[in-house]
Design a protein that fits this description.
The structure is a homodimer.
Chain A lengths: L7 H4 L1 H5 L2 E6 L3 E6 L8 E5 L11 H22 L3 E6 L8 E7 L21 H15 L2
Antiparallel strand pairs in A: 1-2, 2-3, 3-5, 4-5
């Protein structure tokens, strides 16, 4: 499995903690709470291997990865009840396939526009991240 | 099949022409050139049915849809040779599953940041859209 020594999704630990709170693992992915929570419930689903885009994995791997993304999205709809989830994969500078799953609430922050990468406005304390992670794990059965 | 009378992806024609140039159809999707071409080669892959998100379709439909998205992304890499493709699904106001596939070029417009929904800066003439559409059709075998 290809991993990168400077990539937070590959190395986890401190590199990941800078922006994310690890919830756990699904078959092909890591589930990570995005620490910036201007959109309550915002999560990243990162592929387990250091590949750049979906075009770099096989059909079977892609099917499994999007099954994971879908599973997380369904859990988010149930737990956070957003009016819509936005799905975005950017990472121009890095090369690690991941999607931001961003719950949007009608009339609230950034409703009707693409979400900013990081508004740097709203952070929780560690206990609140762990509570959220625990709820998500329970919903995902992990 | 669920369609909506006010949705450009459902009705095509004038509603779609306002922002897109129809390339053609794949098994589960429409392939559409986004008329605003600040990112040369920007394309939309819209699901054929009026559903809001991937969570609203079956596993089999999701696999087929992302196979289409992947096919278009591979064609874009070949034709336009971007350094990265961004994939974004928003549509807070509408309810029709579609992804924007946005080629990014190192050092060029919006490199390293999420793409704007519509910069409203760069438009082509109809012959140029048709030339691009023709190249994409050839690459997709449609």
């Amino acid at each position: 499995m290809v991993l990168d020594p400077n990539c937070g999704y590959c190395q986890k630990g401190e590199l990941l903690d800078e922006f994310g709170y690890l919830v756990g693992e699904l078959e092909t992915s890591l589930v990570i709470i995005f620490r910036e929570q201007s959109h309550p419930g915002r999560i990243i689903v990162a592929y387990k291997e250091h590949v750049s885009e979906m075009v770099d994995i096989t059909d079977e791997e892609r099917n499994k990865y999007f099954a994971d993304v879908n599973k997380v999205a369904k859990a988010m709809h149930k737990l956070f009840q957003p009016d819509k989830i936005n799905y975005g994969a950017y990472g121009d500078g890095g090369s690690h396939l991941h999607f931001h799953l961003v719950p949007k609430y009608e009339g609230e922050f950034e409703w009707g526009t693409p979400f900013a990468m990081n508004p740097k406005e709203t952070y929780l304390d560690e206990a609140a991240y762990e509570k959220m992670a625990s709820d998500i794990r329970k919903e995902l059965g992990i």
